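Box 4.2: Ligand-aware structure prediction
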Amino acid sequence: MTDLNFEISIPSDKDGFCLLQCPLCSGFFKLKPQDAEAEDVIQIWCPNCGIKSDNYLTEDVIELALNMGENMIDDALFDSFNKVKKSNRNKNVSVKVKKSSHKHENPIVAGIELLDIQKYKCCQREAKIKPIVKLIGSYCPFCGVNDDGNH
Ligand SMILES: [Zn+2]
Ligand SMILES: [Zn+2]
């Protein structure tokens, strides 16, 4: 029996940002996990609407994590079946292996690819936000200060 050892976490992009969604305005933004979990960061302000929320994990993200877990289990089962199949190659045993189709891992990729890095000088931290929000001015997710985009 194959050991299934994996962690489900929110996938970060190539710059190390994780996707979050504001429950109030439904706006997407991204933060680095080390910033969001830093000791001096007590609450997170939505950069889009400037309101504090307790939880920015979206149903999409939770569902995504669950799907990733299922896919990993599928892959692990597929691998162990293949090993059985190989070891039985010269025997009169037939093991049918059909790989199940993966569930869609990222239904919101189009939206998150469009996010731009915004540097907040007030906190010396960065977030990724929509270019339009960056243009009109966003709120620092770490202190809630309005940034007019001209810094
Ligand atoms: Zn918001
Ligand atoms: Zn700040």
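In the box above, the bound molecule is zinc ion. The radius of gyration is 21 Å.
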